[in-house]
């Protein structure tokens, strides 16, 4: 299996990154409950609204090698069928930080929009 080249996010409600990420944006990579470990540049962004089983089937067929949706379609559909929104972000210019660093975040949101880039040394 190859490396992940598209970050995919599915959600029941309209929330980041849906409608918030644009081509050229810097996306930081952070472990859940852990430090920021790297970054990538968004080179293409696709959004989907009102997902149906047919649209999910199309996403899986077109992008399964890029988003690691290798499970059988029925398992993919069961996992994401409650989703109404999807965002696919093409990953480019990945940088892994030699020294990961913590970031202060007190809520459970998976995505946070920053007003300015983090100061990475």
| Residue fraction in strands | 25-35%
DSSP strand count: 4
Radius of gyration: 15 Å
Distance between the termini: 33 Å
Main beta sheet, described? 4 strands, antiparallel
Spatial order of the strands forming the largest sheet: 1-4-3-2
* Unreliable residue stretches: none
H/E element sequence = EEEHHE
Helix tally equals: 2
Going by helix content, strand content and strand pairing, the class is alpha+beta
Mean pLDDT: 84
Summarize the topology.
Layout (H helix, E strand, L loop, with lengths): L5 E6 L14 E5 L5 E14 L3 H15 L5 H8 L4 E17 L20
Antiparallel strand pairs: 1-4, 2-3, 3-4
Which tags fit this structure?
121 residues, alpha+beta, 2 helices, 4 strands, 35% strand
Could you explain how this protein is built, in words?
The chain is of the alpha+beta class and 121 residues long. It contains two helices and four strands, in the order βββααβ. Helix 1 packs across helix 2. It starts with 5 loop residues before the first strand and ends in a 20-residue tail after the last strand. The model has no long low-confidence stretch (mean pLDDT 84).
What would a concise description of this structure say?
Helices cover 19% and strands 35% of the residues.
